[in-house]
Here is the input.
Amino acid sequence: MIRAILIVASMLLLAACGDRSWHGKDISHLMPRLEFELLSEHGQPVTEEIFAGRPLAIYFGFTHCPDICPMTLAKLAAAARRLPEDQRERLQLAFVSVDPDRDGPERLAEYTAAFSDRMLGLTGTQRQLQALTRRYRVTYGYEPPDEDGNYEVSHSSAIWVFNADLGAELMLFDDLSIEQMRNDLERLLADR
Amino acid sequence: MKWARGILALLVLAAGALWWVAGFDDGPALRFEDARARLVPGDGPMAGYLVVANHSGGLVRLVGARSEAFERVMIHRTEVVDGRARMQHQAGGVAISPGGRVEFRPGDLHLMLIGRKSELQIGDPVEVELEFEGLEPATWPVTFTVVPVTAQ
Here is the structure.
């Protein structure tokens, strides 16, 4: 009986070692290379080429989001800060606002600076945002405004990670811990 | 050995009395821990988090909140369904069972603090009045501390 348990346990252990599983989701064969035309927090039109040559983590949200956006961005920024120095300096962070009516360049710049000096804020016209979000199956939508004109934006709550060639690699979900995010980022940055 | 039995009986009585007295809870009916508000840059809404522990002996329900520092305070819950996050207004309030505790935490239940009336800094106190059903008094003041946007 004990021998049987040991055999099963060692098989499980071998299987676990063989499976290079991520805390996030591997999207390397599921999603296309990064491509976009957007407006940066500096007020400049930019394309994906500004990120070429170094890995990138992107989060989609809006600045009037008091809970899940700051929570996820804070985790991402903390995970990035815990990376080994050479990796930390290579990884770029981006926040794409899907609420361009309220999130102009100045507001985006103030917002991203609060999380990391390595985070760039981006937004765009609805056409530009839809082109990018459809490419990665990111969904967003606007809830009806209240009597004061405030409205909520529902949005995909994951982080998309790209390699230095801007190929899609990973999705990191908001419920991962800082350490889990750091593990995935470190492994990805070490591999490539 | 009679005296020993007497002492033993006294000890048992004393322990019983202590246990009985300890059962009394002289503290407040509600206790609040770790009340904090995340300072989101700009003038957008902020989220308030805390733990509410119910020592009242009965079911209570948090039904509303207000603050002099904000235009409006709402009770919200972030819900992620199929990877998509949205906030749900908790119109019916939040029930806390007798002896139970409810944690308002990032990515879950939170107070949505809307319309800052003045600029806030990290470390500032923010007074919030929480309104409950199921106990008297109904209104309980709680001091939240403003924490950085990067606070977990």
Remarks:
- The two ends of chain A are 45 Å apart (CA to CA).
- Chain A has a mean pLDDT of 90.
- DSSP finds six helices and ten strands in chain A.
- Residues 22-143+151-190 of chain A form a domain with the Glutaredoxin fold (CATH 3.40.30.10).
